[in-house]
Amino acid sequence: MGLVEARGGLPGxxxxxxxxxxxxxxxxxxxxxxxxxxxxSSARAAYLRSEIExxxxxxxxxxxxxxxxxxxxxxxxxxxxxxxxxxxxxxxSLVGRFALLRRLSEQHALLPLGRLLRRPPPRTGPNDEDLxxxxxxxxxxxxxxxxxxxxxxxxxxxxxxxxxVLLDPHPMVVRNVLGNPRLTEDDVLRLVARRPAIPGAIxxxxxxxxxSQRARLRMAIxxxxxxxxxxxxxxxxxxxxxxxxxxxxxxxxxxxxxxAAREMLERRPPVPERSDLPRQ
Length: 280
Hints:
The chain has helices at 3-6, 26-34, 41-54, 57-72, 76-88, 95-107, 111-117, 128-132, 147-155, 159-165, 171-178, 185-193, 199-207, 215-223, 229-236, 241-249, 255-267. By secondary structure, the chain is mostly helical. It has 2 domains: 7-117, no CATH class; 128-267, no CATH class. α3 (41-54) crosses α5. Mean pLDDT is 87; it is low at 1-9, 11-20, 128-133 and 276-280.
């Protein structure tokens, strides 16, 4: 018995592929209705996680395929929902579920979902361990602080303490830094724009339900050559046309990111001609 049969088969309206459906699935409509009503980004991410964990795989696949397809056509509500979905792609507890959704997208021609979950080529370059010795805070006697000490330092509502661990490469420290009440957008920009990059730190920012929604930070992540492709490529799907054009012409943008931006531009609806301009 195949995966879909085990889950009860495809709903009738979706058997020909989500891209041919004239109306959204019930779950897609639910996402569109509920997500914009949740004001906190963390609440949106928590709601989506609970739905993804609880619903049958095929139901989630069809709903997300509809969201992805509408977002490609510049639907603002779909793009808003997709922004929360993208923060969950690197969630360790959902890796298996997204792998199943990728398989379903291939089996049932759910093309927009397949483009979101497409595996980009692996990143090349230094890893977090190669960079760690340059960025670990030290005690007054010069010894490197332990991971526990650095995590505690990152939680302190102190500007001086925050500055000591702002560029720490360990994801657990970065997670605490991102929740520090003294942290500013300029601080996070410094973190994600740093070269050589701290890939694990960038991934934490991209997964953060609030900081990942900032357009300036998103563009900085995409323009950093050290950003892991599995982080950068899904983020391209959230850009509006001016941002896509800017990315295409920006220096140092990795080829895989530039290609994703070009693909998104090609799928966007054409810009309508201005009919309100006075005739010459």
